[in-house]
């Protein structure tokens, strides 16, 4: 009898800890703001010394990608909000369905970003591409540091 009560208490404690951990988990991109195409192009102009023609073409590409992915980004925000709300009334089937949709949307957004990045690279000179690569590598340690501070952040 004592052993079964002890086991019950352990299972109850573990279940409670799991529920608390799940409730605190952030399913959304914490602290991240909406992408700003104009700011991105302005940084590129400043740091890569883009010509007026490059600025116009890259600006058009980035704006187009931003506009075409807006519905997916909005849906992703809504799904993250719904997933956070699941901690109150968990439905495994519904969560699985939402998680699958998050994966599909993330896949589309990743492809779109990579495609735009490749198109932008074609517009840069070799020197500008090298500089952009170096700038990207310089940012990696800062981004990984942020992830250390917030493990649930993407």
Write a compact overview of the structure shown.
The protein is an all-alpha fold.
Explain this structure to me?
- With 154 residues, this protein is mostly helical.
- The protein has a domain at 37-140: Four Helix Bundle (Hemerythrin (Met), subunit A).
- It has helices spanning 2-24, 37-48, 52-85, 92-123, 126-149.
- Helix 2 (37-48) crosses helix 3 and helix 3 packs antiparallel against helix 4 (92-123).
- The radius of gyration is 22 Å and the shape is elongated.
Q: Given the structure, what is the number of helices?
A: 5
* Termini separation: 47 Å
Give me the CATH architecture of the domain at 37-140, please. Up-down Bundle
**Helical percentage:** over 70%
Give unreliable regions as ranges: 12-31
Structural class: mainly alpha
CATH fold category name of the domain at 37-140: Four Helix Bundle (Hemerythrin (Met), subunit A)
Query: What would CATH call the class of the domain at 37-140?
Result: Mainly Alpha
- What is the chain-wise order of helices and strands? HHHHH
Mean pLDDT: 79
Largest sheet: none
What are the SSEs and their pairings?
Layout: H1 2-24, H2 37-48, H3 52-85, H4 92-123, H5 126-149
Helix pairs in contact: 2-3, 3-4
């Amino acid at each position: 009898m004592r052993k079964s009560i002890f086991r019950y208490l352990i299972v109850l404690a573990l279940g409670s800890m799991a529920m608390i951990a799940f409730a605190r988990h952030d399913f959304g991109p914490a602290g991240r703001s909406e992408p700003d195409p104009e700011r991105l192009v302005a940084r590129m102009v400043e740091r890569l010394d883009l010509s007026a023609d490059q600025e116009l073409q890259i600006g058009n590409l980035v704006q187009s990608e931003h506009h075409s992915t807006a519905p997916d980004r909005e849906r992703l925000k809504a799904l993250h909000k719904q997933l956070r709300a699941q901690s109150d009334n968990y439905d495994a089937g519904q969560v699985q369905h939402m998680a699958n949709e998050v994966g599909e949307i993330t896949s589309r957004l990743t492809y779109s970003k990579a495609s735009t990045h490749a198109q932008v690279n074609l517009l840069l000179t070799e020197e500008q591409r090298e500089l952009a690569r170096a700038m990207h590598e310089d940012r990696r340690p800062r981004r990984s540091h942020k992830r250390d501070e917030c493990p649930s952040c993407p």
